[in-house]
Amino acid sequence: MPIINRLAEFQNDIAAWRHDFHRHPELLYDVNRTAEVVADHLRDFGVDEIATGIGRTGVVGVIHGRNSTEGRTIGLRADMDALPIEEATGKPYASTVPGKMHACGHDGHTAMLLGAARYLAETRNFDGTAVVIFQPAEEGGAGGKAMVDDGIMSRFAIDEVYGLHNMPGLPIGRFAIRSGPIMAATDEFEIRVVGHGGHAAKPHATIDPILIGTQLVQALQSIVSRSVDPLEAVVVSVTKFHSGFVHNVIPGSADIGGTVRSLTAAMRDLAERRIREIASGIALAHGATIDVSYHRNYPVTRNHPDQTLFAAGVAGEIVGAANVDTDVAPMMGGEDFSYMLQERPGAFIFMGNGDSAGLHNPEYDFNDEALPIGSSYLARLVETALQPR
Question: In the annotation, is 317 catalytic?
């Protein structure tokens, strides 16, 4: 496994950075400590330019190669934020902040990109420019969009952009990628059923929102089973149902919420339309009012064909081509790297985290054995794309 020797030499440093981030998790855009530590490391590495406050609390570092005027500019992105979960790993570097932990491996992503930045700043064995992007608020805050909206692509003249995410269950030393949709669009809906409350002993004198709501929940499941082509991938999940407060009162309203996941614009449109149509029909049938609020969240994470092939080739140089799955099934989870891929060609790849607990699990931990692999992959993306002439 040809990990870059220099990166292997400071693997312990990369692990120490990760453990520090892990001890001090921060949520969404409130990643001020993490961003400050990242910027301090970049200064120590001799990075040519450091910009802070991009996308509110993001950090960008610019590293010029030996001939920066001749080559292109490659962007490398890592996410910095943690999750509102109480840690249960028992690790010596476990979270010191109650109710917060790095349960998705963003501590590892950030540390690996720092490792790549240190190596690239030391060696500068490329023509062109590397831009390292440390993003806040991936976990539901659309920090990727915030950085794009701040003009990151044009300001730093980025030509292509690449990201990665660890994958529990995929062995250490393995990568997985695909061209086209690799992660889903993530939409959210909130539905309010307004009926007419009354005494539970006189249901005939009410319009029962709980009865209506249960019918609505069941009917929503027909979207995937009866409205979607079986060869398409769509998920409709109801995750909230709140109504009532005592045993002998039929309440006047019920609130229902959930998520929709899809891989194409057509299926995204279909799911929203069917939710509204089903709600309207059930409301009419029962004489109730049903209001639907539908929010389109992260778009589909769609890899570009040429950059996917390139990324797979670089990963194969690190771990061997046989250890790179180039046709992994899309995941129905969401990722706001999608906003960056809408602006520039690039690719998002999964990297093995071994036999660990799953993402967003209180027992999850990023595997330190993966650190030099990920750092080597990120550094080689730049060196291979921007080979000196």
Answer: no
